[in-house]
Amino acid sequence: MRDTRATVLSATAAASDTSLQRPAGVTADGWTEVQRSIHLEQYGVVADGIAEGRYRATDPVQRFEARFDPGGVQLAPPDGKDWEWGLALRAWGRDDALESASATALESRQGRVEFDCGLLRE
After folding, report:
1. DSSP β-ladder status, 85-87 and 91-94
2. Residues 6 or more apart from 38 whose CB is under 8 A from it?
3. CA-CA distance, 107 to 72, in Å (whole number)?
4. At what angle do helices 4-15 and 28-43 cross, to 10 degrees?
5. What pLDDT is recorded for position 11?
6. What 3-state DSSP class applies to 90?
7. 103 closest CA partner among 89, 86, 115, 113
8. Which residue, of 14, 78, 91, 96, has the fewest CB within 10 Å?
9. Residue 114's closest CA among 89, 85, 80, 86?
10. CA atoms of 102 and 90, how far apart (whole Å)
11. Does residue 85 carry a pLDDT above 80?
């Protein structure tokens, strides 16, 4: 039985390898755009599909997935097994004047997710 996982990892690494030679007849700008599109397809932030206002991004080389929701960000393997790590900002400011950092909305643009916490946007 053939190990397709190794083939997928090799293809992923090759697609993200910026040292690959530009094919004949393709302009330098065109080749840069192709590589950029591949990178965005592999690493871009997309709507999660579970609920509105949730996003996810996958890192195929490191083999983990980041999920973003109003509660923070969680990292885990794409299959959801073995481990999970999360991070959430609960408050911001000084010790004597902390403000709640509950995210009221999430927005994804240009490959990043922003948490809107009222006066704070992270």
Report:
1. unpaired
2. 15, 16
3. 13
4. 130
5. 40
6. coil
7. 115
8. 96
9. 89
10. 7
11. yes
